[in-house]
Amino acid sequence: MTYASRPPTVILLAGLQGAGKTTTAAKLALWFKQQGRQPYLIAAYLQRPAAVEQLRVLAGQIGVDVFSESSDPVEVARKGVAEATRLGRDVVIIDTAGRLAIDEALMREVRSISDVTTPHYTFLVIDAVTGQDAVLTARSFHETLALTGIIVTKLDYDARGGAVLSARGVVGRPVVFASTGEKLGDFDLFHPDRMASRILGMGDMLSLIEQAERTMDPSVMAESAGRMMSGTFTLDDFMTQLNQVRKMGSLGGLMRLVPGVTKEMRSAASNVDDGELNKIEAIVRSMTARERREPSIIDGSRRTRIAKGSGTTVNAVNQLLKQFGEMRKMMKQMSGGGMPNLPGGMGRMAQAAAKASAKRGGELPPGFEALGAGMSAGAPVVRAGGGKNKKKKGGRVTPPKQR
To answer: Is residue 390 domain-resident?
Structure first.
C-alpha cells in the first residue's frame, strides 16, 4: 500500500451486516500500528449502538483512539477525519453501517460518506462463507463506490472462499487482506499462493515463520533452544516456550499452517482451548523451583500436593510429567545424534542436506547422519567423505533372486 503525501490516508470499509466490518476495522488498525503507523478509528455505524461500543472495546485492547458521536453518520465521518488531521494521525479507518441485504438507503449513506471523506482506499469486507451472494454484493458496492480491493473474513480451515474468488473476478479488484481467526492478530495481507497451499493441505510455512518473528522474543527462544539441545531443558523452559507459542494464536490456527498435518490432528488441536493450557500452567506453577528443575524428585505425596495446589487431579499431573519426560528424552537423543525416525518429508530434507555436505567434502552437522534412519526404505545414506554405503572389501555380492 502507498500512503497519502499529505496525511491522513483515509480507508473506508463497506459491506453487509455480519461480515465482520467492525472487528476488521480494529484488526486493520492493529496491522497498520505494527507497520509503524498511527491509525485512528471512526465509528460511523450509528444504527447499531453496540457496534460503536464494540469498536471502542477492541480499540482499547490495541491502544488506538476512536471517534464517534450521536449525530448523523456522514457528519461523524467528516468530523472524524478532521480530528485525525488535527491530532496528526496518518491513517484513518472508517467503519460504516451494514444491512442484512443491499438496499437503497444503505448505498445512499455509504456513498455520502465517501463523498465527504474522499477515501484513498475503499475496501469491501466479505464473509468467506457467504456463498454466491458475495458476487451480487460485490457488484452492487462496486457500482456505488468504485472499490479498491476486497478483505476476506472468516477464512478458516473449513471456509474455502470460492465465492470470494468469483467476486474478485466480477469487480476486477484484488483481495488485499485476509482474516483467519477471531483474535485481532489473525489478520494479514492476502497471499494467493499461500492460500492455495492451505486449501490443498500443504500448510503455509512462510506465514508461520512471519507470525513467529512478529510475536516471539528471539533471545528467549534462543536461550531455551540452547538448553533443549544440551539436554538441560526444564519445566521452566517448557513454560517459557509455551507462553511464546500462545502469543502466536490458537493451536488450531497454527496447526493449519504446518505442512503434512492431517485433518484429524488439526481438529484435535482446535479442541485444545486456553482453559486446558491454563491447567498445564497451573500445574507447573504449583511446583517448587527445585521440582521444576528436577521433575524426577516428584514422588506420590508431591504429586498430590501439586494437584491440590493447581485445582487439578493427580492423573493430570502424572500425564504432564510423563509427556515432559518423553519430550526431554527425545531432546537428549537429538543432541546426541540419535534422533528417532522422522516422517518421509523430514527424511528427504535430511538426505538433501547430507548430499550437499558430502559434495562440499565437509562434515555433516550434528544429528543429520542419524536422520537417515527416518528416510524411506531403500534410500541411500550419504556420509561425510562421499559415497553410498558399500560392503567391506572382500565381501561377496549375491545377485537378487529372479521371480
So the answer is: no
Highest mean pLDDT among 12-21, 100-109, 162-171, 255-264: 12-21
Name, in order, each residue with C-beta under 8 angstroms of 26's C-beta and a sequence gap of 6 or more: 41, 55, 58, 59, 61, 62, 64, 184
Residue 398 within a domain: no
Among 325, 343, 370, 347, residue whose Cα is nearest residue 231:
325
Q: Which three cell numbers stand for residue 45?
A: 455505524
Range of the domain at 351: 337-384
DSSP secondary structure, 293-320, as one string: H-GGG--HHHHHHHHHHHTS-HHHHHHH
Farthest CA pair distance, the chain: 96
Distance CA(295)–CA(306), nearest Å, equals 12
- The reply to whether 88 and 186 lie within a common domain is yes
Based on the domain organization, do 178 and 224 belong to the same domain? no
How do residues 34-60 score in pLDDT, each as one tens digit?
A: 999 999 999 999 888 788 999 999 999
Q: Is 52 exposed, middle or buried (0-12, 13-18, 19+ CB in 10 A)?
A: buried
The pLDDT value recorded for residue 342 is: 42
Residue identified by cell 508431591 is 302
Quote the pTM value: 0.59
- Please indicate, yes or no, if residue 232 is contained in any of the structural domains: yes
